[in-house]
Design goal:
The chain is mainly alpha-helical. The chain contains 6 helices and 2 strands. Strands 1-2 form a two-stranded antiparallel ribbon. Strand 1 (88-93) and strand 2 (96-104) form a beta hairpin. Helix 3 (61-68) packs across helix 4. The longest helix is centred in the N-terminal third of the chain and has 26 residues, at 9-34.
């Protein structure tokens, strides 16, 4: 596989064009499937934080804030709302009593999984209009993106 080298203007231009199209498509796709999140009954910031906890495991407030790229006071408010909704548990860190560990409850995990399923089913319903060849191309593109993300530095 050929790597894009900054000194090769033609390949650099191709990479920029592909990046622009992918960026735009990803934003539009996420905006459309995100509409399904209203059924969860909680806001996007809470769903996003809950997603980190479900898929990455228990976190400290600071690590959760860093993962979500927001400040700790903002994350404190989000976690407090998740706690009120019984979607997370907060316990003391066994290695440092000053730190709190935040983990999803079974209810929080179910809520997130149901939302993910709604998004996927909604997207799949729209993919039904594609041909088998187009679906295979999308699958191949998804594999490329997954590999790119695994190797992201």
């Amino acid at each position: 596989m050929t790597k894009v080298k900054p000194e090769d203007p033609a390949l650099r231009g191709e990479a920029l064009a592909a990046a622009a199209r992918l960026h735009s498509a990803a934003i539009h796709l996420l905006r459309r499937v995100r509409k399904q999140d209203a059924a969860s009954g909680i806001g996007p910031a809470q769903l996003s934080a809950l997603s980190v906890l479900v898929f990455a495991g228990p976190q400290t407030l600071g690590s959760l804030a860093a993962a979500e790229q927001i400040k700790s006071p903002t994350m404190s408010r989000i976690v407090a709302a998740l706690k009120r909704g019984r979607l997370v548990d907060i316990t003391r860190d066994p290695h440092d009593a000053r730190r709190m560990r935040i983990r999803p409850t079974a209810r929080g995990t179910r809520l997130l999984q149901q939302g993910r399923r709604r998004r996927i089913e909604y997207l799949a319903a729209h993919l039904d209009s594609l041909t088998s060849k187009e679906l295979a191309q999308l699958g191949a593109a998804a594999e490329i993106l997954e590999r790119l993300l695994r190797n992201w530095h």
